[in-house]
Amino acid sequence: MKTYARLRARLPYPPSTNTAYANVNNRRVKTKAAREYTQAVQAIIIQHPDWVPLHLAANKTATFTVEIIAHPPDNRRRDLANLEKIPMDAIFTLLDADDSQVTHINMIKEQPRAPGHILITIEANP
Asked: Are 72 and 114 in contact (CB under 8 A)?
C-alpha cells in the first residue's frame, strides 16, 4: 500500500487508559491527567512540520497505519495495550478523522528512558 503522508513525532509517555476516565454523574469523562495530556499532544502535533500534509491527506475514506515505539519512564510493569488510546484520540480529533480508519497498528515496548516517551508514526494511505 502506497503511503502519501507521514508524521513521526516524539510525545510524552501517556497515562494508562485505566486511569484516563472517571464516572461523574453517571457519565464517563476524561480525568484531568488525560485532558492535560491531550492538550500537550495536540500542541506538539500542530507545530510538527509534517502536520499539514497529513491533515490534508486525512478524509473520511483514507486509512491509516500507526506504529508506536514506547520507552516507559521506569521498569514498573505496564500493559502495552493501555498505551495507545489517549494519544490516538488526541491526534485523530485534530485530523477530523476517526481512529476506526486505522487498519494496522504496530506497538513495540523498548527499554525504559526517564521521563518516558513514545515515538508515534502515522501514515495516511490512499
From this structure: no
CATH of the domain at 120: 3.30.1330.70
Residue range 35-48, pLDDT digits in tens? 999 999 999 999 99
Domains of the chain: total: 1
Secondary structure of 57-90 as H, E, C letters: HCCCCCEEEEEEEEECCCCCCCCHHHCCHHHHHH
Strand 21-24 versus strand 27-30 pairing type: antiparallel
39-83 per-position pLDDT tens digit:
999 999 999 999 999 999 988 889 999 999 999 999 999 989 889
Q: Which domain holds residue 108?
A: 5-125
- pTM assigned to the model: 0.91
